[in-house]
Sequence to fold (294 residues):
Amino acid sequence: KLVGSLRIAAERPCLLILDEFLTCPQSVQGPALRLTLERVAGEQPLHEGTRIICLANNPDEAPGGIQMTAALANRLVIMKCLPLVTEVADFFEAQPAARFDSGFTLPDEATWTARKVQLMASVGSLFRVLPGLLQLTPPPASINDGEPFASPRAWEACCEALASLDPQHVAHATPIAHAVISGCVGAGVGIQYLGLLRARLYLPSIQEITQNPIGARLPDTHALHDGKPIGRDINFATIPLLLEAARVDTAAACVYADRLPEEIANAIAKNLTTNINIPPSSAWKKQGKDVMFR
Fold:
């Protein structure tokens, strides 16, 4: 007796998608293979116009994953796909604009969602500057030792976990934030991200850049955090900060970028004007456009 999607696939032409194809339990592997190879569900043939797409992670990256047999592999068109770093960045940045308070109590759902949205947009901007923060395939330590790694899904979980913390933990990269970040995306990438969070303490806010780009403080590589130099982290942190500011007022962000060392301005120039947004109320429209077309 056919149900749901299988009935539709038998009655009329459609696209039948089988997700997690290589993690099905042994009890259903036989029927699943018959469905795929013979195009028969139970005893009912699929419609001749129905097409099948099977989706799966690599077996060594999925709990209970099974290897494809030679017979199965020989009957399928196999395509291995990975997203581009820019596509992941687009997804993280394409969150609706949101405001959130800086309260110290456990956030309600709306506040938590707003914090997550802002964190994801910030992380997405980082991917454009430091693509090494994103690991699209698991490193050997993850495969061999079960260590977390910085996949898109892990970064989204990281943003969700950080959104549950007091914002001050995130802003000041406290040991609690360190534990959360490392537990989500791994110690190596986590340390890099924490360094960037600390560097943000010594940079202007997005509001300061968009309201007063000619007066907002500039990055100082000699700044000290707990007695130790911030170093180049502050330059790396400046670029995604400006990308975030450009989504609010591109003209103001360009005016601020024009004050930066040439190597930083050059590194951000293309991304800064990818999606131009200059509000009608912007006081920096003319000056910002002069910088853009220089």
